[in-house]
Amino acid sequence: MASISDVAKLAGVSTATVSRVVSAAPYAVSPATRERVLDAARTLDYVPNALARGLHKSHIPVVGVIVHDITDPYFSELVRGVEDAATPAGSLVITCSSDRVAEREESYVRLLRSMRASTLIFASSGLDEPIVNAAIRRHVTAMREYGAAVVHLSPHADGHADVGVDNEAGVASMVVALAELGHRHIAFLAGPTSLFVARQRLAGYRRGLVEAGLAYDDRLVVSTPFDQEGGALAIDTLLGGAAPFTAVGAANDLLALGALERLAIRGRRVPDDVSVAGFDDIQTARMATPPLSTVRLPLYDIGRRAFAAAERQRSGETLEPEVLPTAVVLRASTAPPADGLAG
Amino acid sequence: MASISDVAKLAGVSTATVSRVVSAAPYAVSPATRERVLDAARTLDYVPNALARGLHKSHIPVVGVIVHDITDPYFSELVRGVEDAATPAGSLVITCSSDRVAEREESYVRLLRSMRASTLIFASSGLDEPIVNAAIRRHVTAMREYGAAVVHLSPHADGHADVGVDNEAGVASMVVALAELGHRHIAFLAGPTSLFVARQRLAGYRRGLVEAGLAYDDRLVVSTPFDQEGGALAIDTLLGGAAPFTAVGAANDLLALGALERLAIRGRRVPDDVSVAGFDDIQTARMATPPLSTVRLPLYDIGRRAFAAAERQRSGETLEPEVLPTAVVLRASTAPPADGLAG
DNA sequence: CGTAGGATAGTAAACGGTTACTGGTCCCGC
DNA sequence: GCGGGACCAGTAACCGTTTACTATCCTACG
To answer: Distance (Å, rounded) from C-alpha A322 to C-alpha B323?
Structure first.
C-alpha cells in the first residue's frame, strides 16, 4: 500500500508537500505542484494512514458511545443521530453495549482512551458504583488531557446531562395527562432504582401525583429491570397486590410494552380495563397493540446535538446544558377509566 | 499522560522491557522486573497508545460493520452479536449506517481503510453499482494487503455470503407453510430488486410456489423499499389490483409489519381476511398485532460467527461458507384462509 | 578452567504522518 | 544595487510503540 513517501517520490516533491496537499493544511502550495501531488495520489490509490496522523495529533476522529444495549431502540436511534452528525465531519462511531455492568463500561472507556478517541459520549445513565466510577473518572480525565471531548446524555455520578431532557417534568406531564383522563389510581413501573434516570423518572411520577392532587401509594410502585421482561413481572406484582389501579405509567416504553403483553395474557383489556403509558416513544411504541401512549423524546436529535456539543467543547467552549423538549403523545393504550378497578 | 518511556524511567528499565511486559509478548522477563514495571504502570495510570501500536503493526483491533441502518432491529441484533464476540478479543466495533447508498458505503470503507481496521464486515447486501463497487473492491484489496479480514454476510457483487442463511430455501419454506394452511393465492412483498438478498428471497417465493404446486402470478408481486412504509404501500397496490389473494408473504419483517398496519387501516382483519408472514424474526415481530408469523434467522449468532470467521481468516484459514439454519415460526398472523378472497 | 548457550535486558530502527524551521527565488521599491 | 518580504518547498524532529539485533551475565558441561 502506498504511503506518503511513495506519493512524494512519484510526484517529485517532499513528503511535507504531499502532506500539505492531502491534508488540506492552511499552507500555500502552488497549483501546479498540487496537481502533480493529487495525480500521484490518485494513480497510487493513496489513502492517508489515520493511525500515523492520530499518533502525531494525539487523537483520532472517532467517537465512542457508551450505551446499555444497541439492540434497544432507544439507543439505536440515539446512536444513529450521533452517526449522522459525525459522518460529515469525518468521524467514525464506535458503539459500546455495556449491558449496564459497570466493569464493562470501564473496560470500554479504557479501550476508547487507549485508541485516543476524540469524543466520548455517555448515552447510558450513570451507575452507582464508586470504585468503578473512580476508574472511569481517571480515564475521562486522561482523555480530556489529550484533547478529547466528553459529553453526558444522562445524569451521572458527577453531575447532570450536557444534552438531554427533563425526565422529571416529562413523567410528571404524563401522570397529569392520565389524571386528566380521570384516573385516580395510577401505578408506576419504576425501572431499576440504581439508575439515575430511573430515579428522576420516579421523582417525576411523584411530582405528577402532587400536581394532579393524588395521593402517593407505594404499593403501586414497582422496581424492575429496564426491559420488557421487567414490565411483565411488574404487572404480575401489581395484579397480585392489594392496591387497585386503573392506569399504569412506566419509566420507559420497553417496560410498558412488557406490561401490555402481560396484561393481555392475564385477560385485562387495554385501555378498557387498564390504561398503559410509556416513556421515550421508541419506534416500536407506535406499532404495539394497542399503539402505546407515551412521552416523546427527541432521541435522534439528542444524538446529533451530542456530537455538535462535543465539537464545541473541543473548540474551547464550555457547555451549557441543553434541555430538549418532551411531549405527551396519547395513542390508543390510554382512555378514561371504566367504573371498575383493575386490581 | 504517561507514555511507555515514563513507565520505563520510573521502573528503571528500557522501553523494550516495558513493552514486553505490558503487551504480554512471548519473551522472558524476570519476575522481579515484571513486578517493577507493573507497579510503575499502575502508579502512572499508564494505558498503551493503540495508535502507536497500530501504526507499527499496520492495523488496529477495530471491526467495522457496514449496515443499512443501525436503527433497523435486523442490523442492531447482528451488530450486537459481532460486538459480543469482538469485545473479549479486545476489539471495538464501528457501525456504519450506509442507508443503502453506495457512495456512503464506499466512503465508510475508505475511512475504515484509512484507520487500518483489522476486520471489515459487510452486513448489508451488495448493491448493483459497478463504479462504486470497483472503488470498494480497491479498498478491500488494500485492506487485505495490510492484513485485514473481510467477511460478507450477504450475497454481493463478487460472490456469496461467508456466513449467512439460505434465503431462497427460507422463503420457500414459508410459502410452503402458507400453502399447507390452505392458501392458494399468496402475494409477495419483494423489497427492492436492486438488492441481492431481495432477489434471492424473490427466487425463494417462486421456488416455494413450485414446491406447493401453485401458479406464479406477477400481479401478486410488489417491489418496494425494504421498510414499513414500503410494506404499507405494497398493500395499497395489491388491494388496488385485480388479483385476489388470501395471504401475503414478505421479504422481511419490516415489510410485513407495514402491511399489518395498513391492512388494519383498510379494514382487513388479520388473519381472518388475510394471512401475513414476514422474514427475519426481528424482536418486534413478536410484539406486533397480531404477533407475526415469520422465518427465524439467527441474527445474533450470525454476528458472532462473522467475527469468529474473520479471526480464522486472519490466521490464514480460507473460509468455508457457513450456512446457518432458518426456521418457520407460525404465530397469530397466519391461519387457514376463509372462504372469501381478500383482494 | 574455558566456553557454549540460556536467560535477560538494552539499543535503535522502523511504522507513516505533521509541522517548526530553514532556505531559496523572485519581485519590488528606494 | 541592495535590503526585505512574499511565496513555496524541503529538512528533520517527533508522536509512542514493537522488535531484530546486540550485549551481558551466569550456569553447566567437557
So the answer is: 48
Question: In one letter, which amino acid is B328?
Answer: V
pLDDT confidence of A339, banded at 50, 70, 90?
low
The separation, in Å, between residue B41 CA and nucleotide C5 C1' comes to 33
| Interatomic CA distance for residues A206 and A217, integer angstroms | 10
Interatomic distance A246 CA / D12 C1' (Å): 77
Q: Are B185 and B243 in contact (CB under 8 A)?
A: yes
- Global confidence as pTM: 0.93
C-alpha cell, B236: 395499497
- Interchain contact A90–B (C-beta under 8 A): yes
Measure CB to CB from residue A111 to each of B45, B70, B92 and give the nearest one.
Answer: B92
Give the pLDDT of residue A343.
41
Q: Which nucleotide is nearest to A55 (CA to C1')?
A: D15
From residue B337, alpha-carbon distances to A272, B184, B263 in Å are 30, 9, 16
Cα separation, A299 vs A309, in Å, equals: 15
- Give the CA-to-C1' distance from A29 to C12 in angstroms: 35
On the 0-12 / 13-18 / 19+ scale of CB atoms within 10 A, A209 is: buried
Nucleotides of D under 7 A from a protein CB: 7-12, 14-20
Would an 8 Å CB–CB cutoff place A83 in contact with chain B?
yes
A chain contacts of residue B55, beta-carbon cutoff 8 Å: 49, 51-52, 55
In this prediction, residue B341 carries a pLDDT of: 47
